[in-house]
TrEMBL record:
Residues 392-466 form the AMP-binding enzyme C-terminal domain. Belongs to the ATP-dependent AMP-binding enzyme family. This is Acyl-CoA synthetase. PANTHER family: ACYL-COA SYNTHETASE, ACYL-COA SYNTHETASE FAMILY MEMBER 3. It comes from the Bacteria. NCBIfam families: PRK07787.1. SUPFAM superfamilies: Acetyl-CoA synthetase-like. Pfam families: AMP-binding, AMP-binding_C. It comes from Amycolatopsis rubida. GO terms for biological process: fatty acid metabolic process. InterPro entries: AMP-bd_C (IPR025110), AMP-bd_C_sf (IPR045851), AMP-binding_CS (IPR020845), AMP-dep_synth/lig_dom (IPR000873), ANL_N_sf (IPR042099). One of its GO terms (molecular function) is medium-chain fatty acid-CoA ligase activity.
Length: 473
């Protein structure tokens, strides 16, 4: 029989497991309420969870996993068309929701309010390791969202690989303010501490004051996305309390998108801390990370996690062995998803044998550290016979004093094939295209300079802070 996903929940204790503001649950309390809710869930159907950033979402997910019932997390900001697609595709039996929260009319399912107190016990036994744990829907940038079926095996192996990479223990207290409908905020940020027997303090919503308060009062780890760390980088030099709180942390982790090197540098200059980056996807969970006991390299997502194999391939499918040469990342290992729900065609297209085609482009350093240069579809620019990663140019442009934010894309060019376009949010005076081209040419090769500059008040971003490049142009 597989080991339980949450040994500490099964054991029960007075130790704090979850804290959301002034709402706290010990492991014993979590086991009692989740056990009671688990007994009420249908065993042969999926359940949807209206994933508000509250303890209710955490209780619902733990209860479903204890019962062996697959969870379909729903973004509370979801649009009507996307919600309709997800419900029709996954066919959940009911929706679990925080009491008092209004649900959209399109969510036409039986509702079960999530309690925060109960007197049940976690069910005996553990479902099979290959049993589905979650169906998480992708962003759907190339069509309707696909339901990624994540087995219990992938959850356990990823969280255990991060235990190794980050030296994550039951003594750690994690703080974060991430949404709870996706891998980063829910699986890593809530289930990670619970699998370790540690604690998590959720801010409800990210704020510099919340981060300062929690890290100054016993939290040891911080999870965030680049938008959050950018706010930290902007403020930390002048905010002594924030700087002192960050200095006390054992580990600062950034993910879901690349953290600009300039923000790395500003945080390190003010605190001495070096932010750790990792790389994962919904279909693969976590693939690589900078290790807690390893060299920190700003701009790198580290090395493959234990159990994960990673290779780079060129357009012909041949392995890329030479350091510094761009190739598409493919991975395999126990961290992989099972399938796209109801989409055998998409599942087959995503695999090269037993390797998953990530669509992410990267290079490897001689020591094996991986550097993401962008998505194959939107961030690999073919200009003048060169293959150029947008991320490298973005990092260079962010070093310019008049660039607050930037995104780099390619657009058709009769001479070059594609020309490099910089979408710039200025900081003060607008930099000219000549100024930015010269700046990039000094830092990188001249063929990587932007040929066109377009100015914006803000970059279009999704809920995770990722720039939506398809909305540009």
């Amino acid at each position: 029989m597989p080991d339980p996903l949450f040994p500490a929940v099964a054991a029960g204790s007075g130790k704090e497991a979850l804290r959301f503001g002034d709402r706290k649950l010990s492991y014993a309390e979590l086991g009692a309420v989740a056990g009671a809710l688990a007994a009420e869930l249908p065993r042969d159907r999926r359940v949807a969870v209206w994933a508000t950033p509250t303890p209710h979402t955490s209780v619902a997910v733990v209860a479903a996993l204890l019962a062996g019932v697959p969870v379909v997390p729903l973004n509370p900001k979801i649009g009507e068309r996307e919600l309709g697609h997800i419900l029709a595709d996954s066919e959940p039996a009911l929706v679990l929701a925080e009491p008092g929260v209004e649900l959209p009319a399109a969510l036409d399912l039986p509702r079960h309010d999530i309690p925060l107190a109960g007197d049940g016990k976690p069910p005996a036994g553990e479902p099979d390791a290959e049993a589905p744990a979650f169906i998480v829907y992708t962003s759907g940038t190339t069509g309707p969202p696909k339901g990624v079926v994540l087995p219990r095996r992938a959850i356990a192996t990823t969280l255990d690989a991060l235990e190794d990479a980050w030296q994550w223990t039951a003594d750690d207290v994690l703080v974060h303010g991430l949404p709870l409908f996706h891998v980063h905020g829910l699986i890593l940020g809530i289930l990670g501490p619970l699998r370790r027997g540690g604690s998590v303090r959720h801010l409800g919503r990210f704020s510099l004051e919340g981060v300062t308060e929690e890290l100054a009062n016993g939290a040891t780890m911080l999870f965030g996305v680049p938008t959050m760390y950018h706010r930290i980088a902007e403020a930390v030099a002048a905010d002594e309390a924030l700087a002192d709180a960050l200095k006390s942390a054992r580990l600062l982790v950034s993910g879901s998108a690349a953290l600009p090197v300039h923000d790395h540098q500003r945080i390190t200059a003010a605190t001495g801390q070096q932010v750790v980056e990792r790389y994962g996807m919904t279909e693969t969970l976590m693939n690589t990370s900078v290790r807690a006991d390893g060299e920190r390299k700003p701009g790198s997502v580290g090395v493959p996690l234990a159990g994960v194999e990673l290779r780079l391939v060129d357009e012909s499918g041949a392995a890329v062995e030479e350091p510094g040469v761009v190739g598409e990342i493919q991975v395999r290992g126990p961290n992989l998803f099972t399938e796209y729900l109801n989409r055998p065609d998409a599942t087959a297209a995503a695999l090269d044998g037993d390797w998953f085609r990530t669509g992410d482009m990267a290079t490897r350093d001689p020591d094996g550290y991986v550097r993401i240069v962008g998505r194959k579809a939107t961030d690999l620019i073919k200009s003048g016979g060169y293959k150029i990663g947008a991320g490298e140019i973005e990092n260079a442009l962010l070093e310019h004093p008049n660039v607050a934010e930037v995104a780099v894309t390619g657009e058709p060019d009769d001479d070059l094939g594609e020309r490099i376009v910089a979408w710039v949010v200025p900081d003060g005076e607008r930099p000219t295209v000549e100024d930015l081209a010269g700046h990039v040419s000094k830092l990188l090769a001249p063929h990587k300079r932007p040929r066109v500059v377009r100015y914006l008040d803000a970059l279009p971003r999704n809920d995770m802070g990722k720039v939506m490049k398809r909305a540009l142009g």
